[in-house]
């Protein structure tokens, strides 16, 4: 693919519902990151996958958040029992060697 | 642990002047230092990066300098143009960890 692709672009969900956000990294990129960006704020690290190594989950804000990366490619970020404070743009980035490239993000709105 | 401080948080310069944004870090094992530009409503885009074995790198109007002894690195934009207005983020990775840690961002405004 040409770049990192995320879907959906926008998601509106009701408080308490579960959501899944998808990231398709650049083909061949071995590392994948998820970040959260609240309106006007910086990039908050959530989780990092590198090849077959155990993921670095140190940034996940609560046990309602989880992520997986199947077959070393596509990744899904799941948020259970969504809360209004989960509203943000969720950005995925993939990386090979040193340079990381971002997807366009999923804007999540919890109402 | 990983920590990167970015200053200033906002910067306003006249078109044609230079802009400098600085980041400081604490872990001497940091070995890769990229800069990203994020325009309103868009994804962060990599604009320049530098590795720890290099002191300076330039690409047209932008340059990055690294001072490993003082543990800081800076982005320099010369001859600023209105399209340079954006939020700029510094970042780093630490040797062996590979987690990409970002600074808090600098909102740069170029005044015509």
Q: In words, what does this structure look like?
A:
- The complex is a heterodimer of chains A (111) and B (112).
- By secondary structure, chain A is mainly beta.
- In chain A, strands 2, 4, 5, 8, 9 and 10 form a 6-stranded mixed beta sheet that branches. A 4-stranded antiparallel beta sheet of chain A has the order 1-3-7-6, with no helix packed on it.
- The mean pLDDT of chain A is 94.
- Helix content of chain B is 0%, strand content 58%.
- Chain B is an all-beta fold.
- In chain B, strand 9 and strand 10 form a beta hairpin.
- The mean pLDDT of chain B is 94.
- In chain B, the strands form 2 sheets. In chain B, strands 2, 4, 5, 9, 10 and 11 form a 6-stranded mixed beta sheet that branches. A 5-stranded antiparallel beta sheet of chain B has the order 1-3-8-7-6, with no helix packed on it.
- The interface between A and B is medium-sized, with 22 and 20 residues.
**Given the C-alpha coordinates, what overall shape of chain A results?**
globular
Major beta sheet summary of chain B: 6 strands, mixed
Largest two-chain interface? A-B, 22 and 20 residues
The helical percent of chain A reads: under 10%
Helix content of chain B: under 10%
What is the count of helical runs of chain A? 0
**What would the average pLDDT of chain A be, to the nearest integer?**
94
- End-to-end separation of chain A: 34 Å
Give the number of helices of chain B.
Answer: 0
Give the amount of beta strand of chain B, in percent: over 45%
What percentage of the residues of chain A does DSSP assign to strands (E)?
over 45%
Enumerate the spans of chain A where pLDDT stays under 50 for 5 or more consecutive residues. Answer: none
Shape descriptor of chain B reads globular
Biggest sheet overview of chain A = 6 strands, mixed
| Whole-number mean pLDDT of chain B | 94
Given the helix and strand composition of chain B, which structural class is it? mainly beta
Judged by helices, strands and strand pairing, the structural class of chain A is mainly beta
H/E series of chain A = EEEEEEEEEE
What distance separates the N and C termini of chain B? 41 Å
Rounded radius of gyration of chain A (Å): 13 Å
